[in-house]
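2024-03-11 09:14:02 INFO worker-7 job=invfold-0412 stage=load source=structure_tokens
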């Protein structure tokens, strides 16, 4: 009888047992915290205990959630770089990955100076079942998995690029995939050569920099790991040792490429389950818009208020020529607004896009915005500024749901033309609906999938069965260059042997002739 109860209790404890999961999302950008917050929400709902390294902690966290406050990380990277004015004036080329990589290396170095983080890492009572780290142009975060001796899971904010896939499997073939920093999307001969060059350049940078990175890795984590009485592994052993990569991506926003078994698309997991209602005043404006609503937002990192004033005025004048209502997400209001334009510092974007009156979204083409638009099935005008935004917008254009406009002093006329085209030509609307069906028709919601795969990694001790067979095969073996070498040597041997045989016969016959 006692045994029976004991068994019941063990069963019950087992069912209730949640895993302890560490989330490392230290980047001080709003869209990156949206990604981290999504993990938190789904993991808590599934009953797990979450520790969240974030620059954006909130008051009174829910039960089972603990913050490691790294808000000082805002000092570690200059977010002023991501400014509309700076980018317009071409003060910096944000498309050059070899310029970005040292920035993020410095970021990690600076992050480790934060006291709260040091205290946490050096606390030997801390234990975790899995560690999720956001990848952004650096693999230095992988050391968290070494410290806690737990499986490493990468979170990638972008479509699967050659850089993240080479950590799990192998490089993408640049003949049919575009480098995610590329401003163009075409595969002519010269483009393919250029793509190969861009990938090669970054590879060279990584190779030339690897000793320095290894040093930094050991300097950051070495003392902490030593305190736990373990030997510090090499950086390469750790960064290529992830069990899983969860990507904020989807086949509908990306291209049909082969992926390793441990890369999982979970794009859309940040969606709210129920769209929050629009604020009262905005709801009235949208409900009563006689000709539909155009929504204009540059996302959360780029501040639209940094658009030069004269250009803002020109944008307003241009909007006033349309009969549609315009809602512009802008941090500061502007006096003398045209009748059909409304400004709001905060817009529940998912709800507004889903509203039947919303007919067009003018966006910077960030992946989060793009995924939200796909779900709602609305056409887009993309105004890309940096990183993968060009690629996202270019693909949306290729799929027939978008037009791309480049932002500079002369943006008004092309933008006006693009708005007209999308409002008057029903094909954009039609394609957006089709893509929305492709996107929304899935077996389980991405948030559920995310939880499932993290649990799977924990249950299977790091999911070794999902790892790619290609990961540890040298590039020359994959290209059969060793076989080529053997064939070349064999050919040379045959050539040499036949040559000496030939001379031998020649000499022999000559001698015979002489004898006669
Ligand atoms: C690699 O990952 C496995 C599974 O999580 C883990 O057991 C192992 O210690 C890791 N090795 C290194 C060097 O990080």
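2024-03-11 09:14:09 INFO worker-7 stage=emit residues=516
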């Amino acid at each position: 009888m006692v045994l029976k109860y004991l068994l019941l209790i063990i069963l019950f404890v087992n069912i209730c047992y949640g895993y302890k999961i560490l989330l490392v999302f230290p980047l001080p950008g709003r869209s990156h915290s949206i990604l981290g917050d999504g993990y938190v929400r789904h993991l808590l709902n599934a009953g797990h205990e979450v520790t969240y390294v974030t620059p954006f902690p909130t008051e009174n966290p829910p039960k089972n959630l603990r913050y490691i406050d790294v808000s000082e990380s805002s000092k570690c990277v200059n977010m002023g770089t991501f400014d509309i004015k700076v980018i317009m004036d071409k003060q910096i080329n944000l498309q050059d990955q070899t310029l970005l990589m040292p920035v993020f290396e410095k970021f990690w170095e600076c992050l480790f100076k934060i006291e709260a983080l040091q205290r946490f890492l050096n606390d030997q009572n801390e234990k975790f079942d899995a560690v999720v780290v956001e990848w952004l142009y650096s693999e230095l975060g992988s050391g968290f998995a070494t410290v806690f001796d737990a499986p490493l899971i990468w979170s990638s904010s972008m479509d699967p690029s050659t850089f993240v896939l080479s950590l799990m499997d192998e490089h993408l073939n640049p003949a049919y995939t575009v480098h995610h920093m590329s401003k163009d999307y075409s595969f002519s001969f010269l483009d393919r050569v250029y793509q190969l060059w861009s990938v090669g350049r970054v590879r060279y940078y990584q190779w030339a920099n690897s000793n320095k990175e290894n040093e930094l890795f050991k300097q950051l984590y070495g003392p902490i790991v030593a305190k736990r009485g373990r030997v510090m592994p090499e950086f390469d052993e750790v960064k290529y040792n992830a069990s899983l990569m969860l990507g904020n991506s989807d086949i509908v926003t990306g291209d049909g490429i082969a992926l390793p078994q441990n890369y999982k698309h979970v794009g859309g997991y940040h969606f709210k389950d129920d769209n929050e209602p629009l604020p009262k005043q905005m709801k009235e404006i949208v409900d009563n818009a006689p000709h539909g609503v155009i929504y204009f937002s540059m996302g959360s990192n780029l501040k639209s208020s940094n658009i030069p004033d004269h250009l803002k005025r020109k944008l307003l004048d241009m909007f006033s020529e349309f009969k549609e209502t315009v809602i512009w997400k802008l941090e500061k209001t502007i006096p003398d607004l045209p009748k059909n334009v409304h400004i709001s510092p905060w817009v529940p974007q998912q709800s507004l896009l889903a509203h039947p009156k919303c007919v067009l979204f003018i966006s910077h083409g960030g992946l989060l915005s793009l995924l939200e638009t796909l779900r709602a099935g609305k056409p887009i005008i993309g105004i890309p500024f940096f990183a993968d935004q060009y690629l996202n917008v270019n693909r949306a254009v290729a799929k027939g749901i978008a037009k791309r406009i480049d932002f500079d002093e002369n943006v008004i006329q092309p933008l006006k033309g693009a708005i007209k085209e999308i409002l008057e030509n029903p094909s954009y609307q039609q394609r957006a609906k089709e893509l929305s069906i492709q996107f929304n028709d899935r077996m389980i919601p991405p948030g559920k999938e995310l939880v499932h795969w993290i649990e799977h990694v924990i249950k299977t001790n790091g999911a070794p069965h999902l790892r790619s067979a290609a990961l540890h095969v040298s590039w020359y073996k994959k290209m059969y260059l060793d076989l080529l070498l053997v064939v070349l040597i064999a050919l040379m041997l045959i050539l040499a042997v036949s040559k000496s045989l030939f001379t031998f016969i020649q000499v022999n016959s000559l001698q015979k002739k002489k004898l006669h």
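2024-03-11 09:14:09 INFO worker-7 stage=report msg="Residues 349 and 372 are 8 Å apart (CA to CA)."
2024-03-11 09:14:10 INFO worker-7 job finished
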